[in-house]
């Protein structure tokens, strides 16, 4: 009886919401599916393959026009094969320059998916990478960044593999609902196919747009190319030169805190921020 | 007794043949509609058979003569037999003709039998091995039963009670012959090729490929998908998604294996055998497994062949399975280099490349399953208009010092120089610089599109991404529409083919020339002067997209001749040229095999003894130069011409045509 029930629960799957944005090709600046968001959808599709019955919904907040539609259809084209529930994307319609966070937070609170997947940083707009954090704050859900893979979902707890620098991985167990953000550590997105992309539809949901008041005060200018600091390598052998080229420099100073209470951790962070003059 | 038995046998066989024909036609009609003028096709049938088909079959004189004797004898014998023995018109003249026809068929069948004694690997065995015996049974029995009609045998011989047995045996042999020749023709025996083949010739999807009285026909451009109509399937998922005349074409296959013998992917041990692929389509159309296939299988890496009998399909089932096995594995479709060698050799005029690209379209457009680097290349084409993902603004960087005239400035020129994506490739940039030097030496009024140029869409289309192809093509056509030029010249045969043969369907009609053709014209017009050739022996590699796709075999050879080079031909050259392995996106999908196609081609070059191989295609250059430890140098024709250029003297500038003195060019230069 017990395993039967467990299996049933497993087969039920979970509700996954993938937040997608309109990307920008680094060379030509053309609108496209954003690299990280597409990886997020790939992650969702991997969950669906592991856990049949998982429902994926795609969510985009922004305006609708021809070029953005073509870019968004790039995500829809990843849903090849019938019955993935990806024949449609929810579009929270709001004019350019509106703040996406309130609209997304409101929609997510209303639909209450168990897992929200988003790219770490947008390719256009501010690209501050703050959206996942702001959403987590709004919704009061835990956030895990830089995800490498979702290992399993069981009884409302998801086991995640988080990517750390230099190929390290950390296994985490997080209670649902949760937000996870993906960057280049997640598996690459599959090819987008023209047929499913063309057939897919948009479910347009009007929102009460809130103008991004902070963005309005910002001064935007094209990025300048910054000079790169050259590493001076004194190496005797080819092996040393290769090692120097391949390895990232180890961080100096700092301390690793393990087995500390949240208060101690917070105190340490507070001290560091004061030392670095971030807080005064 | 035979008099009563024969009409029964003949008309039973005919009736069964008609029923079989109707069943077969129903199988073909599962396909999608295709607009063909049925009447015109039937009228054109004799010419298509006697001229176009015979042109292909005639490359092997022995088989050609065998077929004339056997098939000609059979057709005549069948008609006369119905008249003489079926309807009982015992006219000695008709009888005599029937004897002659069956004798001719018998002689032919002896040669068929001889070929089957020790058949080459490319021929299918199985039911095909019994065909010569059936042919003999038919011809001998018809000959014998006709002897009495002309009085060469006493009428009574078969009448007497003692010859009952003889008559029965004879009737039995007649039945065997009729069974194979009439019944088997429409019920799927080896003779099916005659019935389906004749109709395929008449209702061919590319009526333009056949010659007319005015001259030879050619039709090599892929057919466009209708992307406007969402009901049109994007490519071929299941056998029934082919058009009905494509299905008919598959059914016409005689399994002679000429395609297999010339296929570069098959030779390289990649999992493609064009003959098997066509038979797989026939299996799919009728439903069932490929267990009955009796030819060489699809090769597979290191194992010799993929076992036959594991794949199965149905008219409305998928050709390539989402998981596991269906009719064909995806690797088979992606192994093709679209070199058209199979189509060129096929005596039944089957269009293998069309079918393969149709199926690739489904895999790419519906399933998003372009293998290996395919997806990346297509994404690059969408985002940057070139397959390498380079900044489109850097398309002209290689010519920073050449001060190339731009179409945007001039608006109107004689020649538009189409650069192609080789503009981003350092090796091809050398060719392009050489070509510019040649054009300047001949004082050609030319300009380039520069950064306005995009990829022609060749790779996207061959990888099955018709949407990206049409997007690129439409934007290129819009760009070209802004300017006025007499012709487009390019050093890339792929661009040449796409611009010249495939843009027409989308509204872009241009006079396109390959640079070798254009240089040959310039030379003939006396606008170029060459120093005599001092290098070693040279061979020429025909690019598929220049030769087989566009029929240009002469111009490059004429240019080499004008340079004073005597071409040492490779065994496989001209229309039988072996592909370099670079076409159809094959280097991108990169299906593993036992050998590499360019290695085999460079081996051909080595066997010719040449120290240098002249090429006329950036893909061929890249593929052939990538061969390790090659025995020959690879140079583009443009480079050879640029190196041999000589400043023209004042007399030459007068513009005298060299048409008549072309052969003495070398002496002239020395003066």
From TrEMBL, chain A:
Keywords: Electron transport, Transport. Residues 37-192 form the Electron transfer flavoprotein alpha/beta-subunit N-terminal domain. This is Electron transfer flavoprotein subunit beta. The keyword Cell wall biogenesis/degradation does not apply. It comes from the Bacteria. Signal peptide: none annotated. Gene3D superfamilies: HUPs (3.40.50.620). Pfam families: ETF. The keyword Transport applies.
From TrEMBL, chain B:
Residues 652-671 are annotated as: Disordered. Residues 244-274, 324-355 form the 4Fe-4S ferredoxin-type domain. InterPro entries: 4Fe4S_Fe-S-bd, 4Fe4S_Fe_S_CS, Csal_0991-like_N, Cys_rich_dom, HdrC_iron-sulfur_subunit, Helical_ferredxn. The chain crosses the membrane at residues 6-25, 68-87, 93-113, 134-152, 164-183. This is (Fe-S)-binding protein. Keywords: 4Fe-4S, Iron, Iron-sulfur, Membrane, Metal-binding, Oxidoreductase, Transmembrane, Transmembrane helix. One of its GO terms (molecular function) is oxidoreductase activity. The keyword Repeat does not apply. GO terms for cellular component: plasma membrane. The keyword Transcription regulation does not apply. It comes from the Bacteria. PROSITE patterns: 4FE4S_FER_1, 4FE4S_FER_2. SUPFAM superfamilies: alpha-helical ferredoxin (SSF46548). PANTHER family: IRON-SULFUR-BINDING OXIDOREDUCTASE FADF-RELATED (PTHR43255:SF1), IRON-SULFUR-BINDING OXIDOREDUCTASE FADF-RELATED-RELATED (PTHR43255). It comes from Vreelandella sedimenti.
């Amino acid at each position: 009886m017990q395993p039967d029930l467990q299996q049933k629960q497993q087969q039920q799957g979970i509700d996954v919401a993938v937040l997608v944005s309109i990307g920008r090709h680094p060379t030509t600046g053309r609108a496209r599916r954003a690299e990280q968001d597409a990886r997020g959808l790939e992650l969702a599709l991997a969950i669906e393959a592991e856990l049949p019955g998982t429902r994926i919904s795609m969510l985009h907040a922004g305006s609708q026009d021809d070029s953005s539609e073509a870019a968004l259809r790039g995500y829809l084209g990843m849903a090849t094969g019938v019955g993935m529930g990806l024949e449609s994307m929810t579009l929270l319609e709001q004019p350019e320059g509106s703040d996406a966070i309130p609209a997304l937070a409101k929609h997510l609170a209303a639909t209450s998916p168990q897992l929200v997947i988003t790219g770490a940083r947008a390719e256009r707009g501010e690209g501050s990478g703050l959206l996942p954090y702001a959403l987590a704050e709004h919704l009061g859900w835990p956030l895990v960044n830089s995800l490498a893979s979702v290992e399993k979902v069981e009884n409302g707890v998801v086991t995640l593999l988080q990517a750390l620098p230099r190929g390290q991985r950390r296994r985490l167990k997080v209670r649902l609902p949760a937000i996870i953000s993906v960057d280049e550590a997640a598996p690459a997105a599959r090819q987008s196919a023209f047929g499913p992309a063309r057939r897919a539809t948009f479910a347009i949901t009007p929102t009460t747009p809130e103008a991004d008041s902070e963005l309005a005060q910002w001064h935007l200018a094209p990025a300048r190319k910054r000079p790169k600091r050259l590493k001076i390598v004194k190496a005797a052998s080819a092996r040393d030169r290769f090692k120097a080229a391949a390895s990232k420099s180890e961080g100096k100073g700092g301390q690793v805190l393990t087995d500390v209470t949240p208060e101690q951790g917070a105190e340490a962070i507070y001290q560091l921020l004061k030392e670095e003059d971030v807080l005064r | 007794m035979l008099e009563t038995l024969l009409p029964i046998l003949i008309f039973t066989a005919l009736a069964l043949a008609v029923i079989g024909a109707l069943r077969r036609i129903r199988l073909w009609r599962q396909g999608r509609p295709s607009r063909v003028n049925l009447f015109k096709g039937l009228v054109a049938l004799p010419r298509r058979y006697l001229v176009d088909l015979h042109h292909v079959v005639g490359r092997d004189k022995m088989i050609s003569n065998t077929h004339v004797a056997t098939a000609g004898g059979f057709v005549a014998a069948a008609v006369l037999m119905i008249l003489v023995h079926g309807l009982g018109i015992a006219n000695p003249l008709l009888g005599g003709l029937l004897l002659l026809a069956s004798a001719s068929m018998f002689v032919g069948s002896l040669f068929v039998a001889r070929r089957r004694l020790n058949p080459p690997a490319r021929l299918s065995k199985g039911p095909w091995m019994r065909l010569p015996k059936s042919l003999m049974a038919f011809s001998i029995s018809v000959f014998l039963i006709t002897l009495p009609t002309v009085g060469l045998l006493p009428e009574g011989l078969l009448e007497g009670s003692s010859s009952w047995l003889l008559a029965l045996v004879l009737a039995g042999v007649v039945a065997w012959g009729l069974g194979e020749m009439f019944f088997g023709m429409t019920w799927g025996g080896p003779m099916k090729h005659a019935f389906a083949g004749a109709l395929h010739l008449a209702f061919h999807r590319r009526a333009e490929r056949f010659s007319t009285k005015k001259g030879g026909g050619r039709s090599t451009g892929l057919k466009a998908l209708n992307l406007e109509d969402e009901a049109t399937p994007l490519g071929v998922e299941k056998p029934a998604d082919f058009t009905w005349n494509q299905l008919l074409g598959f059914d016409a296959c005689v399994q002679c294996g000429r395609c297999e013998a010339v296929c570069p992917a098959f030779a390289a041990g990649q999992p493609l055998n064009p003959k098997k692929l066509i038979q797989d389509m026939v299996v799919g159309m009728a439903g069932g497994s490929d267990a009955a296939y009796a030819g060489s299988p699809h090769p597979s890496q290191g194992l010799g062949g993929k076992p036959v009998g594991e794949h199965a399909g149905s008219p409305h089932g998928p050709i390539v399975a989402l998981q596991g096995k269906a009719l064909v594995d995806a690797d088979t479709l992606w192994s093709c280099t679209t070199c058209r060698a199979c189509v060129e050799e096929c005596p039944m005029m089957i269009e293998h490349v069309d079918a393969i690209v149709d199926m690739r379209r489904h895999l790419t457009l519906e399933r998003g399953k372009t293998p290996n680097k395919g997806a990346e290349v297509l994404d690059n084409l969408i985002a940057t208009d070139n397959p390498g993902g380079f900044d489109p603004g850097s398309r002209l960087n290689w010519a920073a010092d050449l001060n190339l005239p731009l179409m945007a400035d001039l608006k109107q020129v004689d020649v538009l120089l189409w650069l192609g994506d080789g503009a981003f490739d350092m090796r091809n940039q050398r060719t392009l610089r050489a070509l510019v030097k040649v054009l300047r030496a001949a004082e050609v009024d030319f300009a380039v599109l520069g950064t306005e140029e995009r990829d022609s869409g060749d790779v996207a289309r061959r990888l099955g991404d018709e949407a990206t192809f049409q997007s690129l093509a439409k934007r290129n056509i819009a760009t070209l529409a802004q300017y006025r030029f007499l012709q487009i010249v390019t050093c890339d045969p792929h661009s040449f083919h796409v611009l010249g043969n495939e843009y027409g369907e989308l509204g872009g009609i241009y006079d396109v020339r390959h640079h070798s053709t254009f240089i040959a014209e310039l030379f003939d017009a006396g606008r170029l002067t060459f120093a005599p050739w001092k290098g070693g022996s040279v061979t020429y590699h025909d690019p598929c997209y220049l030769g087989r796709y566009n029929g240009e075999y002469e111009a490059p050879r004429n240019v080499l001749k004008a340079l004073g080079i005597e071409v040492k031909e490779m065994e496989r050259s001209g229309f039988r040229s072996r592909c370099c392995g670079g076409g159809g996106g094959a280097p991108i999908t990169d299906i593993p095999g036992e050998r590499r196609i360019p290695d085999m081609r460079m081996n051909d070059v080595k066997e010719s003894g040449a120290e240098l191989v002249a090429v006329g295609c950036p893909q061929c250059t890249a593929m052939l130069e990538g061969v390790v430890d090659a025995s020959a140098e690879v140079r583009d024709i443009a480079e050879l011409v640029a190196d041999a250029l000589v400043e023209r003297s004042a007399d030459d500038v007068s513009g005298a045509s060299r048409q008549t003195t072309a052969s003495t060019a070398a002496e002239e230069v020395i003066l």
